[in-house]
Amino acid sequence: MIKIGIIGGTGYTGVELLRLLAAHPQADLRVITSRGEAGKKVADLFPNLRGHVKLAFTEPDTKALAGCDVVFSATPNGVAMTHARELLKAGVKLIDLAADFRLKDPALWEKWYGVPHACPELLEEAVYGLPEVNREKIREARLVANPGCYPTAVQLGFLPLLENGLVDVQHLIADAKSGVSGAGRKAETHLLFSEAADTMKAYGVAGHRHWPEIRQGLEAVLGKSVGLTFVPHLTPMIRGIHATLYARLTLPGADLQSLYEQRYANEPFVDVMPAGSHPETRSVRVSNVCRIAVHRPQGGDTVVVLSVIDNLVKGAAGQAVQNMNILFGLDERAGLRQAGVLP
Question: Which is the catalytic residue, given 68, 119, 149, 290?
Answer without folding.
Answer: 149
